[in-house]
Amino acid sequence: VSTVTAQTTQVYSVYIKATPEQIWEAITTPEFTERYFHGVRMEIRDGRRWSTLRELAWDEEVLGRPAPPPRARVDIRLRRRPRRRGAEPRHVVHDRLEGAPKTAASVAGVGWMFVLSNLKTLLETGDPL
Amino acid sequence: MSTMTAQTTQVYSIFIKASPEQIWEAITTPAFTRKYFYGVPVAITSETFDGGASAQGAVVEFDPPHKLVHSWRALYDTETAAEPESRVTWEIAAQDGGVSLLTVVHDRLDESPKTAESVAGGWSYILSGLKSVLETGEGLAG
To answer: How far is CA A76 from the centre of its chain?
Structure first.
């Protein structure tokens, strides 16, 4: 989508007709995430996020290298916006990508937006894209 | 939303369960735009982008249902109205499974910092609303 070098801090936003609680559940429940996040089951356990794609190891599959670069951080922020009734903005910030240029390029552009678009459709219509 | 300086080239994308023709109609039909473009009926022809007192522009490329390019002057604020025109490009690309990718690029904002700042949060809201209207029949505020 772009020829510029992928940014080391990437911000993606989408407004979803759902409560913050519903969105949080969709982000943290494996049965939910596998329906919109490329089939990946994700859960929060012991303060970490664990991802599995069938029997595959997520990091090895995606990064394709024996020694992964410094772990990037994905920061998901939710806040209520009473001005726009019924529409909750969801922001995903993917940063600390300075030491991970391949990851930055991989997720840049439409990658995160596909996930967010799919999440929005799932919450608003009951079915993913 | 952000403390960074607004970028002079801004890119927004969204995947929508709709055909390129349906998305084109939603972008160019006033009765449709009212549901997601902050209530503004926007009339678009091959020559003009007419958003009434909100925004105006000249259409420079009109290729339904794939590409629309027009100039942009935001009139809802006296400071943005006084800045040079910027440019908005809409591109629609069919994907697999009845899904389309809509991308909006707002650029030529180098001399228009107030406009750049003003539209930075707005496009995400507009595209989210457009997607909701097409997929559920209702806008975000409905």
So the answer is: 8
